[in-house]
Amino acid sequence: MSKPSPWWTPHIHRDRRPFLKARGKMVAAARAFFAAESFVEVDTAILQVSPGNEAHISAFSTEIIDAAGAGGRLYLHSSPEFAAKKLLAAGEEKIFTFAHVFRNRERGRLHHPEFTMLEWYRANEPYQRLVEDCAGLLAATAAAAGTRDLSFAGCFADPFAEPEVLSVAEAFDRFAGVDLLATIEDDEPNRDAFAVLARNSGLRIVEDDTWSDIFSKMLSEKIEPQLGHGQATILMDYPASEAALAKLQTDRRLAERFELYACGVELANGFGELTDPAEQRRRFEAEMAERRQIYGEAYPIDEDFLDALAIMPEASGIALGFDRLAMLATGATHIEQVLWTPVADITGIR
Description:
The protein has helices at about 10-35, 80-90, 130-145, 170-175, 190-200, 210-225, 275-295, 305-310, 320-330; strands spanning about 40, 45-50, 60-65, 70-75, 95-100, 115-125, 150, 155-160, 165, 185, 190, 230, 235, 255-260, 265-270, 315-320. By secondary structure, the chain is an alpha+beta fold. The strands form 4 sheets. Strands 1-5-6-16-15-14-13-9 form an 8-stranded mixed β-sheet, sandwiched between helices. It has a 3-stranded antiparallel β-sheet with strand order 2-4-3, with no helix packed on it. Strands 7-8-12 form a 3-stranded mixed β-sheet. The relative contact order is 0.17.
């Protein structure tokens, strides 16, 4: 089997140029969109004390050495979130950033070890306001790219149409015939009840699958492929166990979290931000205990970040995979087509 030509081969790069030119116009349109909303563009440091504390997000680490030869470990951030929230604590109110972020163990058609995350925050505004931002941003960037449709794998979505808003519970009922909330009793997920419903829907469940494992399997296999057809979908009201850095709702079974989908592809993840440092520490510690059990390693907790949460205002925030959006707007079939200089493939995984 012959080795594929690298991206910098002239004829390969020539084929990529239309995608890259459209991407550039989309970046400019996004910046204009946020400028019209009086946002400030910020530039966060890539090197961080902690790369993030989610169990299934793997990081790249490096060593920092001072002039005397003393060293320590830093990480390439998996999101600009910790730094951005410190800026909110410092007094910024509406900020956005185009951040290069890094995730290990991820490479494929929709994943890349280094990618661009468009992340923005609104202090003292509810997370529902971000839904409006998503609709406006889709329309602005699609217009800049000169497209009428977002497309991927034979699916299409109108970026100028109002997104469909669908709760997670409604989606599980509609696409899998599962009453999700019936598996959450008194704030505690019932793993065994969920396993029965999942197996009845045709999902393969193994004995060591947790409630969250079953949720992720069903979401990826039964739900996500059905979202964002004809128009974008906002998937609202995630279960509390999947809250990550989000606040809980009045119904403690649910979190202030939503995701944006188009053409069956997840584009963005939004939160009503948690500002309770004690609760955030508890979640981080639980996530890192799970990571240690699965991967044999864990990442440090950024104590400065927890200190910042204590004085951070109420806020909403969202992270959007800009490369994926560029793919859907240009008709690209692989994420590397919309990256100016993809990371060298030294493992043979594409």
